[in-house]
Amino acid sequence: MGVDHLPPTADAEAIHDVLLRDGAVIVDRLASTDLIDAISAEMQPYIDATPGGGDDFTGRNTRRSGAIVARSASSHQLVQHETILDVTARLLHRAKSYQLHLTQTIAIGPGSPAQAIHRDEWAFDFFEFPSDHHVQCNTIWAMTDFTARNGATRLIPGSQSDPTSFGRGLDDDGNDETVPAEMAKGSCLLYTGKVYHGGGANESDETRVGLNITYNVGWLRQEENQYLSVPADVAATLPDDLLRLMGYRIGAYALGYIDDVRDPLEAIRGRGTTEAQAFGEQPVLPG
């Protein structure tokens, strides 16, 4: 079973249906190559300065460069992509709000071995969320073509429903269960926090680069600290809707307020935020 591909014209409902069924779906060429090139140009100096990972899991020849919102103005179009946010709202519909969980480019260099197969939900201290309760919606945008040979993300479609917590990647006969998420530059892989996946081995002579943007429910801690990754002087230049997505909002009923139960957006904007804005919710749809 491979990863299903949908055209860039697919609506959020169609994308969500496949995502819910398989745990992963690819939307082909959802972003223009011009936009991807602009993000690449803005991020390349940071990628060049980023050291390889400190262990086998993060990849010793893999460079993970974060703070995308602060470093790449062009990336805001993908962080706030209307269709992606619509799918996210559908998948995370049980929560009153969702937020940006992490942003990073992942550059897998030539000769890199495959990453261990894992679930991203394990980041939450290996808490066992109910099998039907989704708390993450993840994307990887292809900044270069993704192929089986150059380290395309590998997944096990359908594994989001597997109650097994560890040991996936091989079937009962010892065969590789994973399939590569091969896609063209500008395409977007969406996957849940429950599906088993990992970076593929790069057996080519080129670097495979993806832009990982993920979202989680407002009552969980973000993996990337957006408030420090994006300096306050940069945050002050960003629009309110992006700041709220980054976490400058009250999540659930009263999570994340500042001092006298004020909206955290006021730390950037001052006292102009109304109570309705402070406690307002992102649009969510029944799923």
> What is the subunit arrangement here?
single chain
Shape: globular
Within CATH, the superfamily carries the name q2cbj1_9rhob like domain
Please write the CATH class name.
Mainly Beta
Q: Provide the CATH architecture.
A: Sandwich
Instruction: For the largest sheet, list the strands in their spatial order.
Output: 1-2-8-5-10-4-3
The CATH topology annotation reads as Jelly Rolls
Mean of all residue-level pLDDT scores: 92
H/E order of the elements?
EHEHEHHHEEEEEEEHHHHH
| Total domain units | 1
Estimate percent helicity: 10-25%
Structural class: alpha+beta
Describe this structure in words.
Helices cover 24% and strands 17% of the residues. The chain is α+β, with helices and mostly antiparallel strands and 287 residues long. The protein has 10 helices and 10 strands. It has one domain: q2cbj1_9rhob like domain (Jelly Rolls, Sandwich), CATH 2.60.120.620. α1 crosses α5. The protein has a 7-stranded mixed beta sheet with strand order 1-2-8-5-10-4-3, with helices on one face. A 3-stranded antiparallel beta sheet has the order 7-6-9, with no helix packed on it.
TL;DR?
By secondary structure, this protein is of the alpha+beta class. It contains 10 helices and 10 strands. It has one domain: Sandwich (Jelly Rolls), CATH 2.60.120.620.
